[in-house]
Amino acid sequence: MVNKNILKIRKKLDKLDNSLLNIIKRRTKLVDAVIKNKKYKKDIVDKKRIIIILKNISKKSKKMNIDPKITNKVWRSMIKAFIEYEYRNFKKK
Questions:
Q1: Between 84 and 91, whose confidence is greater?
Q2: Axis crossing angle, helix 68-89 with helix 47-63, rounded to the nearest 10
Q3: CB contact at 8 A, 42 and 56
Q4: What b/e sequence results for 30-58 when a residue is b if at least 16 CB atoms lie within 10 Å of its CB, and e otherwise?
Q5: Cβ distance 58 to 76 under 8 Å?
Q6: What is the pTM for the complete model shown?
């Protein structure tokens, strides 16, 4: 049986997960706006921007005392997921 402290912590994690879902929804709406402003499918992946984002996240993670390996994996995964989303939702040629 799981102890009560773990159950309390898990409830907090569940609440935090719900907050993350709301943030992802807001991010998706912004990505939708970006898609509408891109003319060509080839414009979806911006490698320079991805490098800058990952460097900034690494710096901020270190400043905030968060393991940069975690944030790097999370952001790489998120970037990949949103790139796939853009390809699925891009309507122009």
A1: 84
A2: 150
A3: no
A4: eeeeebeeeeeeeebeeeeeeeeebeebb
A5: no
A6: 0.89
CB neighbourhood size of 86 (10 A):
18
Three-class DSSP labels, the chain: CCCHHHHHHHHHHHHHHHHHHHHHHHHHHHHHHHHHHCCCHHHCCCHHHHHHHHHHHHHHHHHCCCCHHHHHHHHHHHHHHHHHHHHHHCCCC
Q: Please report, as a single letter, which amino acid is at residue 92.
A: K
Region 38-50: what's the mean pLDDT?
94
Write out the two tokens for 8: 């309390």
CATH pick for 4-89 out of 3.30.360.10, 3.40.50.2000, 1.20.59.10, 1.10.287.130: 1.20.59.10
What's the average model confidence in pLDDT over 29-40? Answer: 95
